[in-house]
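User: Hey, quick favor. My workstation is busy. Could you predict this chain's structure for me?
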Amino acid sequence: MSYRRVVKLVCGIAGGATVLASAATAAESFGYLGDKSLSERLKSWTGFTVLQAAQPPTWAVGNHTVASSASGWDNNWDKRDPSSLVNLKKKESASVDPNTETENNKPKATRNIFLIRHSQYNLNGNGDKEKILTALGREQAEFTGQRLAALGLKYDVLVHSTMARATETAHIISKYLPGVELVSCDLLREGAPIEPVPPVSHWKPEAAQYHEDGARIEAAFRHYVHRADAKQKEDSYEIIVCHANVIRYFVCRALQFPPEGWLRMGLNNGSITWLTIRPSGRVALRSLGDSGFMPPDKLTRT
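Assistant: No problem, here it is.
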């Protein structure tokens, strides 16, 4: 069997540049590559230069160089790192052991935050009160409620934006989650969180709107998205029904991605975005805009 066919077979099974490079290295040791160097032979076959593993901050793909941001992860992104909390506290006694105090302030539980986008609503309504859910929107909310119930989790609270479409969506969902407290919050109303990059031509709020909405939505993020308090003993599951702009901004901020990239994501109506915040402060995105529980003909993004 020719070497080309061996590489094609191996890559078809495992895939990836690592497999190709490893196979080529073995071939070079057996003299299959002739006089050409490993990188020259690979480039002639694939059009790519060999990727060097674990060589930050830059690597090359063809003629294009990709640079690592090298910004790292801010462990105290929510200002709740145990060591920082100890430093901010006034010591009642000089005999207090800082290590003991730090240990006492360490969170023990994981927070799970479910961000639900409201269902389809009447775009032609005159003002917020008339922008209520359509018949399809109400049906979408039913599917979302059923999905959340099917997960079998013990939900702690269901918070919703005070806008009509989010409030109605939350009330429909709550039918499937008996006993879960309903709470409304003005901070979660839709708005313009930050000027998007790249800009779009069809949506250009005034600078004043970014200034006002941005501060409010950032306040909502800081209020709802953070690691658990040290007093919390069990993992929590919280539902927040709000709006696409708010959810996309929350995701960027929680993952420490550039927040101005929020508009690059799209979310279906009634979709579920699941964030997990570990006691260490590490954040994971379990799902983004999941709407696979709805039939295809029920999906919308208005």
